[in-house]
Amino acid sequence: MPAFPRLPDHGLPEHALLICGLVVTRIIGWGSTFYALSVLARDIRRDLGLDVTTVFAGITVLLVTGAAFAPAIGRHLDREGTRASMCIGAVACALGLALLGCAQGPVSYLASWVVIGIGHAFSLANVGSVTVAHLMGPRTRRVIGLMMLATGLSSAVFWPLAAVLSDTLGWRATWFLFGAMQIVIVLPIYAAIPRRRFPAAAAAATPVPATEVTRLPPAHQRVGFWLVALIFSASGLVSWGLPLHLIDMLRASGMAEAEAVGIATLSGPATLLARLVDATIGDRLPVEQTALAGLVLGPLSCVLLVMAPGSPIAAIGFVICFSAAMGVISVARATLPLALFGRGSFGALMGRLTVPQNLAFAAAPLLFAVMIEHFGRDLTLIGSAAIQVFALLAMLALMRLLARP
Questions:
Q1: Which pLDDT score, from 0 to 100, does residue 253 have?
Q2: R_g of the chain, CA atoms, integer Å
Q3: Residues 231 and 168 in one domain
Q4: Confidence of residue 283 (pLDDT cuts 50, 70, 90)
C-alpha cells in the first residue's frame, strides 16, 4: 500500500495556523449544517406547515446523501489532495443553506438538504481527518484529537447564535447568514490548504516511517475493515440516537424539567474532557485500547441508569460516563483506521467506512424514538447497552486479529 511522502519534523509549527483555521471551519460547518436545526426547527414547522418528523428528516437526507458520495470522494482525495474537494464543499453548503432559507414546502425543504449533504460530503464528514493525515504525518492522531476537541464547541457556539439571529432577523435570514459564512470565512481557509498530489510512483519510492507501517497485513485487511465498520456503525447508532432523547428520558425518571436539563448539560463538558485527555495522553496508548475503554464504559453507563431509576447521582454518572465514552470513540473513528491501514489510501478507506456509518447515523434518531415510544426508557437503555456490547465484541475480535503473527 503506497504511503504519502513523509513531512519534515517541523510540520506542526509550519501548519499550525492552517490547523487552527480548519478548526474554525469545522465549528462553522457542523454548527450551521447540523446543530442549528435544533433551534430553528420550531419556526420552520410553523411557517412551512411541516411536522417534526419531516423537519428533522433533513438530517437523514444529509447523511444518506453523504453516504452515496463518500466512496468516490475518498478516492479523489487520495489522488488529488483535499483542497479542491473542500472548496467545492463550501460552495455547495452555501448554496444549500441559501436554498433552505428560500424553502416553501416539504419538497423544496428536503431538496435543500440534498445540496447541503453534497457539500457536507465534500468538505466535512471525514475530509478534515484526511487533510490532517496528509499534512501532519505521525502527529495525525494528536492533531485530530485536538480538532475534535474544538469541534465539540459547535453546539455551544451555534445554538445561542441561531437563537439570537432567529429572534432578530427570522429563520430565513439566519440560514442566509450561515450560507454567507461558508463563502466569506470557510472558503478562503479551504483555499489555503496546500495543493498536493500524491502520484503512485512517487509515493511508492518514499520511505515509510516506522510509526506508519500498516498494522494489518493484506490477508487480514478485509476482515479488519468490516470489523472497524461494525464497531463504529453500532456504537454510532447509539451515540447519534440516544442523546437526542436524553432530556425526555431523564424526565421520565421523575425529574423536574430544570433538573433534567441541568444534568443533560453535563454531556458537553464530559465529551470535551474525554477528547482533551485522549489528545494529550492518547499517543502513549494504542488507539484500539482507548477505543476499547470507551466501548466498555458506554454500556456500563446505560446499565447504571437502569439500576438506579430516579436517582440524580445515577443520572449524573450516566451522562458523564456515556458522554466521555462517546467522546473517546468519536476520536477513534478517525484515528483507528489510520493506525490499522496507514495513510496510503486513507481517503478511499474513510469514504468506504462512511457508507455504513452514515446509514446507521441516519437511522438512529427514528429508531430510538420508536424504541422509547413502544418499549419505554429502561428497555431502550438495555437495548442501547446490547448494541454497544455488540460493538465491544467486534473490537475484541479486531484486537485478537492484531495479535496474530
A1: 73
A2: 21
A3: no
A4: low
Quick one: cell of 261? 436539563
Q: From CA 235, how far away is CA 101, in angstroms rounded?
A: 34
Q: Is the CB of residue 315 less than 8 Å from the CB of residue 262?
A: no
- Cell numbers standing for residue 372: 422509547
Q: What is the pTM assigned to this prediction? A: 0.79
Tens digits of residue pLDDT in 45-68: 999 998 878 888 888 899 899 989
From residue 278, alpha-carbon distances to 18, 144, 245, 335, 395 in Å are 22, 10, 27, 11, 18
- The reply to whether 223 and 153 lie within a common domain is no
Q: Which domain holds residue 328?
A: 214-403
Instruction: List the CATH number of the domain containing 152.
Output: 1.20.1250.20
Amino acid identity, position 100: L
Asked if 246 and 319 count as a contact pair (C-beta separation under 8 A), the reply is yes
C-alpha cell at 332: 477513534
pLDDT higher than threshold 70 for residue 214 = no
Could you tell me if 200 and 320 lie in one domain?
no
Evaluate whether 353 touches 233 at the Cβ level (below 8 Å).
Answer: no
The C-alpha cell at 237 is 447508532
List the alpha helices (DSSP H) in 137-286: 140-151, 154-169, 171-181, 187-191, 200-205, 218-239, 246-252, 257-264, 267-281
User: CB neighbours (10 Å) of residue 405?
Assistant: 3
- Do residues 200 and 234 share a domain? no
How many other CB atoms sit within 10 Å of the CB of residue 335? 25
